[in-house]
Amino acid sequence: MEEHAVLEIREVTQKFGSRIALDQFSIAIGEGTVVGILGPNGAGKTTLLRLASGLARPSSGAVLWRGAPVLAPFPREIRRSIGVVTQETALYDELTVLQNLRFAADLFEVQRGEERVGEVLELIGLSDRVKDRAGALSGGLQRRVALGRALVHDPDFLILDEPTLGVDVEARHALWGHVRWLRQSGKTVLISTNHLDEAEALCDRIVVLGEGRQVAEGDPADLLARTGRLVEISCIAGAVEPVRELLADIPGIEQIRVSDVGLTVHLPHGDSPDAVVAALESDLVQGVRVRAPDMVEVFQALGRRDG
After folding, report:
1. Cα–Cα distances in Å, from 242 out to 28, 255, 256, 267, 275?
2. Same domain flag for 217 and 99
């Protein structure tokens, strides 16, 4: 466990009836780090974040805040140290941006409330939208208001549950910028995501969850080195097996998945796809695309190595 952990989850199991959402799971969130929880839907990410924010008690195991065991609901002094952005922004749609942040400041009894709200509006870039109704904003702007609400009491520890869910590319990158600012400010952040590129861009350490268990853990470069790249090949009708034979003697290929219309070749991270592409200069091949693995493929790749 981390020597200076803000929060620790120790051998926690969380059950809902007969379903096990977390199974003997442990994690430590070090001071001033950004830790990503990566995994497909149903992996246990949201359950973990509910435990970390003091909204739920585990069926077994322990939650520790700065080394001391703590039970949900967390005491007020701990809640004041935590800011949470849930998947659902849960803003007051009929209130303005300013009113939403003022309400949060009042709730946490923030000193210099008006001044602090103004500072947060500058941080999230919404000083010119203070009179807009929250419900009338785009999804990306609503996410920024939700982040501002979580920051208004200046917490040390931020919990972000898929903060870019359902927003466009521009809004996603704007939110990434805010998370990077949190890191530079020395905040501790626990963030869940379905996207490897997001975890790579934002996190110091990534934990991959699958069916409530840890599948893999490491820094982004380490996990990328273990997931590699994919070459997608589309073939003319009836040509899948002949194309597969073209690839049979190429060294380094970890796996070939076959479908009715093509193949997907899994290459180790760092290996050039050039040999694969060169072997596919054939009338049997209609197209070739090199890409990073998606979340399900990451999970499969890491599970294959670590499971």
Report:
1. 50, 17, 13, 20, 17
2. yes
